[in-house]
Each structure stands twice: as C-alpha cells, then as structure tokens.
Design the sequence.
C-alpha cells in the first residue's frame, strides 16, 4: 500500500501484546474506514517484526471481537521512531 499523496494518521505503541492502550487502538480500527473516506490512512508503528504484528492483529480481533482494520509498520531498526523523536 502506498501513502504518497495521502494523509496518514501515524500512531506509535510500545510493543505488540502489551495492551498498553487497547481502547485507543481499537478506536482507530473502528474509524479507519471514516479516515479512508477522507483520503487518510491509519498506520500503527512499533518496533516489533511484521510476523509479530500479524499474530498481534489476530489476537486483537479475537479479544476485542472486531477486525484490526489498519496497516502496521515494523520498525525493528528504530528508524521511524527516532525520526519522530520517540526515543531519547
């Protein structure tokens, strides 16, 4: 999926399976289609691998009973997190 020319709601969370902010993440998922109608994509970022993201997405769906309706980016190199000053 390309993001060029689109607005992006970029949200960071600590790690997959931590459930630090599950209500906010589920809220993004529930409103993802509303964002898309406005030409905006929702993208979650953590330092986990894509494999972990996939497992966690399935876990969110099982626990919350709703699909995780957003893309996830892996940032195992911390490149994105550092670019947004997420780490000191």
Sequence:
């Amino acid at each position: 999926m390309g993001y060029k020319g689109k607005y992006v709601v970029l949200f960071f969370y600590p790690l997959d399976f931590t459930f630090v902010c599950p209500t906010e993440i589920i809220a993004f998922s529930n409103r993802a289609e509303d964002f898309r109608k406005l030409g905006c994509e929702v993208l979650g970022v953590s330092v986990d691998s894509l494999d972990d993201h996939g497992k966690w997405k399935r876990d969110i769906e099982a626990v919350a009973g709703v699909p995780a309706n957003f893309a996830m980016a892996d940032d195992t190199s911390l490149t994105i997190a550092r670019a947004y000053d997420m780490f000191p």
Remarks:
- The first helix runs from residue 22 to 37.
- The helical segments are 22-37, 50-64, 79-83.
- The two ends are 30 Å apart (CA to CA).
